[in-house]
Amino acid sequence: MSQIVSAGRKHSPNRPGVRTAALVVAAGQGLRAGQPMPKQFVNWRGKPVVRHSVEALLAAGCAPVLVMIPQNAEAVVRAALSGLTDVDFAIGGATRQESVRLGLEAIAREKPDRVLIHDAARPLLPAEVVERLQTALDTHTAAIPVLPVSDSLTHAAGDMMGAPARREELRRVQTPQAFHFSDILAAHRAWDDAPTAGDDAQVAQAWGMEVALVEGDEILHKLTYASDFAPTRAAVRVGNGYDVHRLEEGEELWLCGVRVEHTHGLAGHSDADVAIHALVDALLGAIGAGDIGQHFPPSDEQWKGAASDRFLAHAAELVAEAGYALGNADVTIICEAPKIGPHREAMRARLAQILGVDASAISVKATTTEKLGFTGRREGIAAQAVVSLALL
Ligand SMILES: Nc1ccn([C@@H]2O[C@H](COP(=O)(O)OP(=O)(O)OP(=O)(O)O)[C@@H](O)[C@H]2O)c(=O)n1
Ligand SMILES: C[C@](O)(CO)[C@H](O)COP(=O)(O)O
Question: Which residues are in the 2-C-methyl-D-erythritol 2,4-cyclodiphosphate synthase domain (predicted)?
Answer without folding.
Answer: 236-389
